[in-house]
Design a protein that fits this description.
By secondary structure, the protein is an alpha+beta fold. The protein has one domain (27-146): TATA-Binding Protein. The protein contains four helices and six strands; from the N terminus they run ααββαββββα. Strands 1, 2, 3, 4, 5 and 6 form a six-stranded antiparallel beta sheet that branches. Helix 3 packs across helix 4 (134-146). The longest helix has 23 residues, at 2-24. It is elongated and about 75 Å long. The protein starts with a helix and ends with a helix.
Length: 148
């Protein structure tokens, strides 16, 4: 019985420490601030990558659309960790609602000419294998908010 109690205590302690680490894990900009056009797709399914021909296109300017995306991201609880609206290249961290696990969202707004811009997005989870669709829903929600 004592062995079971000790084992249980160790497992619970490990679970708590792991959860706290994941919740408080830093997201260094030098690692997470990436250009979506230049990344290699991860081997895990916990990401969304839209770039090149897959990037959504909108009417507007780089400055205007980047500013709108910044308002949308911050309004959704994301925090800017690198880049700027002026650059049209921003990286945000948003934590999941329940456990606080960090997701990184890198965005580059590109001028396509003729008053049109493309939005390249790389949204990924820092931890785990599956994100249960969280990143895809986030990207779809942000892009839908850009559509009048």
């Amino acid at each position: 019985m004592r062995y079971i109690l000790i084992s249980f205590t160790i497992l619970v302690t490990l679970a708590v420490v792991t959860t706290v680490f994941m919740r408080l894990a830093p997201m260094p900009p030098e690692i997470w601030h990436l250009d979506p056009a230049e990344v290699t797709s991860p081997e895990t399914p916990n990401f969304v990558l839209m770039r090149g021909d897959e990037a959504p296109i909108f009417d507007g300017t780089v400055d205007g659309l980047a500013a709108m995306l910044d308002v949308i991201a911050r309004g959704d609880g994301a925090r800017l960790i690198a880049g700027s609206v002026a650059e049209g290249h921003m990286t945000y961290v948003q934590r999941t609602r329940l456990m606080g696990y960090p997701d990184a969202i890198s965005i580059r707004v590109r001028d396509m000419g003729g008053g049109r811009v493309a939005v390249d997005i790389f949204c990924r989870s820092r931890f785990g294998y599956s994100d249960m669709g969280v990143n895809e829903r986030r990207v779809n929600r942000w892009l839908a908010a850009l559509t009048p």
